[in-house]
Specification:
This protein is 36% helix and 22% strand. The chain is an alpha/beta fold and 180 residues long.
Amino acid sequence: MQRFGFFLVPGFSMLSLAAAVEPLRMANAQAKDGLYQWEFLSWDSLPVSASNQMVTNPTINLDQVKTLDVLLVVAGINVASYGNDKFFSWLRQASRQVDLLGSTSTGSLLLAKAKLLRHKTCTIHWEYVDSFREQFPDVWMSGELYEFDGSLFTCSGGSAGLDMMLQIIADKHGYELALL
């Protein structure tokens, strides 16, 4: 079983979260097996409101990241001012505790601020492309829906997360399962 953790930034995109979680749920259902498990995290262990005001409760604490295989930062449009030195330090530490680290939508901005994307290829929500390129010239920004670069992966948000997660499922369990 591969364990995913979704770190939810206040105002995160519910579409991005659903597009990342639902393929895992469907893969479990189609395989009739528990291939994937997922957990939700927040900085203060309190419920987090999405941009549509739906609230998600964390299911694990930050110190339980080491029990995960994959960590995704799920953010939204109002992410530019999120985070502080303590958060970025935690994110760097978390990146060393999981096999894969990723983001959806504008989560790439937080990975870049934590200095985790230097000399890596990534993508981000289209509204942030120009400012991201100016702010992080040492990160290679693509216009693709999603990008994998070593143990890091990013997607531009919205339904792009669906395609990215189907690729992850295909890589782990074959295209037959991903296409069901």
